[in-house]
Design goal:
Elements: E1 2-6, H1 11-22, E2 26-31, E3 41-44, H2 52-55, E4 60-63, H3 75-86, E5 92-96, H4 123-137, E6 142-147, E7 151-153, E8 163-165, E9 178-180, H5 181-194, E10 200-205
Parallel strand pairs: 1-2, 1-4, 2-3, 4-5, 5-6, 6-10, 7-9
Antiparallel strand pairs: 8-10
Helix pairs in contact: 1-5, 3-4
Length: 206
Amino acid sequence: MKIAVIGANGKEGSLIVEEALNRGIDVTSIVRDEKKAKTDKFLVRDVYSLKKDDVKDFDVLVDALGFFGPNVDQYVPATKHLIEVLEGTNIRLLVVGGAGSLYVDKDHTKQLYQAADFPESVKPLSEEMGKSLDVLRESDINWTFISPAASFDAKGPKTDEYVLAGEELTFDKNGNSEISYADFALAMVDEIVNAKHQKERISVRW
């Protein structure tokens, strides 16, 4: 299996790369600066400069890009570009998603970012990530969008355990919705290897 990770030098992307390498997967980093490449194999590309020929030899493309502040509006156009690159291929796209687009009701009419107590500062980010998920749903490519728990802890431990859930925000027996970046990476690579949730959004928590 050969995979490529866009945003491979980011906090989550680097952990996905590490987890994949530890399992003997052939990993290529797609970065904007070769000095920041986490792997021996790398492509120096901005997401918008990626072309079909760049990714034709991969089985899986992982989108671990993060857009913040005034750049949150790049989620949708970046996703649309990746769809264009992958259309007509068998390459799977796996996306590091957000928790804000998870539903808080069983009828799937209300998302987490729409809740009254959801932090205002994060709403634009969550809304744009949710829009990018909608774009994927309307596409013909083979995608999987993985949302973390409500509390996504960059410094949390790697427990090598997680609970797989679906479109709804879920909680543990103590009412917590948490996952570490490290265990999210574990779940991501499990899906890369097992391909059990194609053309689906799933979520993971402890």
